[in-house]
Amino acid sequence: MVRHSLNYVTSRDRKEVAGDLKLIYQSTTAEQAAMQLDTFAGKWDKIHPTISRSWRRNWEQIIPFFSYPPDIRKVIYTTNTIESLNMSLRKVTKTRGSFPNDEAMFKLLYLALNNITKRWTRPIQNWKAAMGRFTILFEERLPKP
Fold this sequence. Notes:
By secondary structure, the protein is mainly alpha-helical. The protein has nine helices and no strands. The chain has helices spanning 2-6, 14-25, 30-44, 49-57, 59-62, 70-77, 80-94, 102-118, 127-137. The protein is globular. It starts with a helix and ends in an 8-residue tail after the last helix. The mean pLDDT is 86.
């Protein structure tokens, strides 16, 4: 939502708007975030009304984010790694007109993922803390050591 929101902002206001949006997504609860969104709207709706409207329209999809502990939320909102992965996968699939079947597409994505992971040199920030939380919250989904 943050990057989408900044699409509507002039370069002059970008840093200040991003700082005010940070107060929303770094809130400790959904209620606090809603109050921060109201504050944001009061400040920015005269200049950039589409931002708060977009957040309100998508609020039901945003509030589950606040149920996670801060360790996991930080990994979620620092999405550069995820966006880079998505871009790399789109890059290998966009040049193909179509696939003969689903298995062919999955094979291509598998091979692309193998190549992409070879280039990863930096770990995801805060990953160890988040992984510890994932282990507690989603124990049944993670492989046993």
